[in-house]
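Appendix B, Record 12. Input sequence as logged:
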Amino acid sequence: QLNYIKNKENKMMEKFFDISEELLATDKEVMELCAPYFKKVEEVQCYNQLKVLKAFKENYISAQHLVGTTGYGYDDRGNITQELRDVYTTPGNHTSTVLVNYGYDKDGNMTDVFSQIMSPEGTTVRDKGITRYYTDGKLRSTTEYDFHTNHTVKTVKETEYNNQQKTVKKTSYEYWQGEKIDGVLVDGHQRNQEIVEYNDKGVPSKHHLQEFTKEGVLRTESTILYYDADSPLVRSYVSIRYYSDGSIDKKSTEEYYDTGKLKFEETLSYTQEGVLIERYTTEKDQKGNTLKWY
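Logged structural output:
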């Protein structure tokens, strides 16, 4: 029967298209070689269809969950969003990104989308993200989460946009690997934080970085300020290192002319009790000549 259908297809091909018998024969050979792989795909397809149909049946999913709304009868079947979410929390249904929730304002404009990727067992989140929108539909911000192998939070990255779709701020958080405490999985302390702010030209205007110990104590931080220009041009740089009790160990400051040449440089060192023990300062003119040094 399949050969009969295939022969009919070849005859139709010959009728409507100028395809040689030789090429059609090659097509037949290739399809026969691919047949075992197509069969495997069909088996997987059939298995997944039955798996989802079973989950739909168990969670009472019907047409009203999959079509538009008239605005009436929202409470007739309970929380429709939760019911659709239950499909993905049914054992064995965790192989793809799950759109968990859509947010809307009072005028019906979509404001955010929350998504997550589940582990194959459906017990933990591998990845998740949040996308927010302005009321006119333009992108407002994106937030991406990544996780350690033990499913505690590893990184959080957020990008904010203005209404002209230019980047105004990027924030990145990295966390130490968490652990179980009294049987509860707890996220680790923050490892570092990086914030970059941008001007109207899309060029960085400020860059702030902090680093923390595993116990969550601030260890170092630095701030770079840029001139308001078409390309990144450093205006000043401040770096601070701390003792374990939070007191300042060392502070370095640099200032630059808008030509990029060093204007001022100072390094201060302190004891853990806050006593200044060392100071190094240099001032220069725009030609690079030293004006003061002490």
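The mean pLDDT is 82.
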